[in-house]
Design a protein that fits this description.
Helix content: 55-70%
Radius of gyration: 30 Å
CATH topology of the largest domain: Tetracycline Repressor, domain 2
CATH superfamily of the largest domain: SLC41 divalent cation transporters, integral membrane domain
CATH class of the largest domain: Mainly Alpha
Number of strands: 6
Order of helices and strands: HHHHHHHHHHHEHEEHHEHEEHHHHHHH
Number of domains: 3
Length: 453
């Protein structure tokens, strides 16, 4: 059944809860199991403890697996604690390995070891192997539930194998062909199998041009591979080209969301504090380092103003335009930062077009500066009747916006070159840097042209 509308959800919820509380097990199962797993988990989250305990008794661990896998990690941890120990262990035996790994990495290591001890030996061994990989690599996010086949098998034999093994595989649209040493030698799609003659060997039906990723590839790069080749899954291989597992597109969507959240936290200087569920103390603790660094950098801004104190004393009106110069430069720099970081994340910034991007950002900043220069100069002339002041502020705006655009685009590229996450060139950092540069430009121009005021 597809996802429920709001009206149908209300009807189903009432029917399910009535059957649950009245102890009508078969009616509950017939109604509840007809729902999409997402709707099942969504409905389950709204139940109280008493109702949830009834669900555990009405559904087998295997049936409950679909609900558990669709819950977010916080809900999984909460509901896990109220389950019977044997029931919970059985759920983990039926979950795909990547889902189990994700759960175990979020809980106490001692408790994770206890869960593994209670699981089937084979499944536990596979999970321990995945847990041994470095965090955020292909090996750490892959699943072992895939179907591999020998090149010598016939299409008919493989289809029979599918009927038996498909229910336990995470994805069956691609079947991976391996040799006697378990090395990946080809791939065949479900479509290829359906249209091929039954007596055709897989060797004659498969494609040898297999897109794969190495076990130590960064998870974000894995996501880019799946996106680039428009795949539903990508095989993970060892350095000896042995098939280890697969990474599926649903995992990639979670990864890209996680990376986007992480980059947003970097850009906004709130890394680790974007989760609204954490306490104010933890949020403040995570934000404090950036705030302190930016506060100290702001002292340089004060130093710039102090250095040009004589210029300010001579023409006090210059101080009125400091916020505008600083704000405009910071805004343009942050825009260029977003362009640069996105280009690096999508892999569209290469050596061949690097300078073109910088030139484009400089030209964009210059055009924006030119427009702002004309507008602000005209406003100053009309309001203050001082054409030279308008020229000083206008030229300063033009130069500041041009330079700020370059700073915003270049800083992430430099950081990326140093093998750091370019998102750490956060918006507040770029803004503060451009504040300093903008003030230097503004007061330098004002000092040179002050005699004409």
């Amino acid at each position: 059944m597809g996802k429920l509308t709001k009206k149908k959800r209300a009807i189903y919820t009432k029917t399910v809860l009535d059957a649950l509380h009245n102890g009508k097990k078969q009616q509950f199962r017939d109604t509840f199991l007809e729902l999409h797993p997402f709707d099942q988990s969504d409905m389950f989250k709204t139940m109280d403890v008493e109702a949830r305990n009834l669900v555990y008794s009405f559904l087998s661990p295997k049936e409950f697996t679909a609900i558990f896998s669709n819950l977010d990690i916080q809900d999984q941890k909460l509901f896990f604690l109220e389950m019977d120990e044997n029931y919970a262990s059985s759920i983990f035996n039926h979950l795909f390995t990547d889902d189990v790994v994700q759960f175990l990495t979020e809980i106490n290591s001692h408790r994770a070891d206890e869960i593994l001890e209670q699981m089937d030996d084979k499944k536990a061994h596979e999970i321990r192997a995945i847990l041994s990989y470095a965090h955020e690599t292909a090996g750490a996010i892959m699943t072992k539930e895939l179907i591999s086949i020998p090149a010598s098998a016939t299409v008919e034999a493989v289809l029979d194998k599918l009927r038996n093994e498909a229910p336990d595989a995470e994805i069956i649209y691609y079947l991976y062909v391996v040799d006697a040493q378990k090395e990946l030698v080809g791939v065949v799609s479900l479509r290829d199998l359906i249209i091929a003659k039954p007596d055709t060997t897989i060797e004659n039906a498969m494609s040898t041009n297999v897109v794969s990723v190495s076990e130590d590839m960064d998870q974000e790069e894995v996501g880019m591979v799946i996106k680039k080749y428009d795949l539903l899954a990508v095989p993970v291989v060892s350095h000896q080209n042995q098939l280890l597992g697969i990474v599926t597109v649903d995992d990639v969507l979670d990864i890209l969301e996680e990376e986007a959240t992480e980059d947003f936290g970097e850009i906004s200087a709130t890394k680790g504090a974007t989760d609204v569920s954490i306490s104010p103390f933890k949020a403040a603790k995570k934000r404090a380092p950036w705030i302190i660094v930016l506060m100290l950098l702001s002292l340089i801004t004060g130093g710039v103003i102090d250095r040009f104190e004589e210029t300010l004393e001579s023409v006090v009106l210059l101080a009125a335009f400091i916020p505008m110069i600083m704000g405009s430069g910071g805004n343009v720099g942050t825009q260029s930062l977003a362009v640069s970081v996105r280009g690096l994340a999508l892999g569209t910034v290469e050596k061949s077009n690097l300078w073109r991007m910088i030139r484009r950002e400089f030209s964009t900043g210059a055009l924006l500066g030119l427009i702002c220069m004309v507008i602000i100069a005209a406003i100053i002339l009309v309001i203050y009747g001082n054409g030279m002041l308008g020229v000083i502020v206008g030229i300063s705006t033009l130069c500041t916006l041009s330079v700020s655009a370059v700073v915003g685009s270049v800083i992430p590229l430099i950081i990326n070159k140093l093998n750091f996450d370019p998102a750490i060139a956060s918006g507040p950092f770029i803004t503060t840097l451009n504040d300093i540069i903008g003030l230097m430009i503004y007061f330098s121009i004002a000092t040179q042209l002050m005699e004409f005021l």
